């Protein structure tokens, strides 16, 4: 996607156009747009997507797939400022209070595309400081997916510490296993996130 094109769909229910002229537009139902799942996987229809779809079916969360956007690696000289990242993160920050990151486990860590997204948060500390400040008091949660129940606590450290650094509240996390989605556990995860709205 070229940066002069308007990224389109978050979910079937809620569509946001991301042209500069629409930045900051008001959306009537804040509660329905306050939580978003940000999916970062090398496969659009893999096991992590199945877990995300199940989570969405149990909630009112919107879904954004990072594969639909052109987001390049962090650049100290900010030569990539015209890719999709800045418009995307500005609109996420403007429209959502709770960010749920969904990633497969690749080599004991988050996916590459998710790591690039997190690395680009540095842009918000360099030349987009006003947007970065708006992350304060928002909340973060994480869903991971792999073939087994072998994930250690260290996996969550980049998410927990990033939330802490940015002044965000870390709600919690859930690990899902390929072809063994636990609906009850996912419901508990949704309830945990929904409680955050009432605080």
Report on this structure.
The protein is an alpha/beta fold and 199 residues long. It has a single domain, classed as Rossmann fold (3-Layer(aba) Sandwich). The protein is 34% helix and 17% strand. The N terminus is likely disordered.
Q: Work out the strand percent.
A: 15-25%
**How many alpha or pi helices?**
8
The parts where pLDDT drops under 50 for at least 5 residues are 1-33
N- and C-termini, Cα separation: 38 Å
CATH fold-type name: Rossmann fold
- Which CATH top level class fits? Alpha Beta
Structural class: alpha/beta
Order of helices and strands: HEHEHEHHHEHEH
CATH level-4 homologous superfamily: Flavodoxin domain
Number of domains: 1
Spatial strand sequence of the major β-sheet:
2-1-3-4-5
Number of strands: 5
Outline type: globular
Rg calc: 16 Å
User: Roughly what is the average pLDDT, rounded to an integer?
Assistant: 84
Brief overview, please?
The chain is α/β, with parallel strands linked by helices. 34% of the residues lie in helices and 17% in strands. The chain has a five-stranded parallel beta sheet with strand order 2-1-3-4-5.
Secondary-structure blueprint:
Layout: H1 30-33, E1 35-39, H2 47-57, E2 62-65, H3 85-95, E3 98-104, H4 112-119, H5 123-126, H6 129-133, E4 139-146, H7 157-166, E5 169-177, H8 183-197
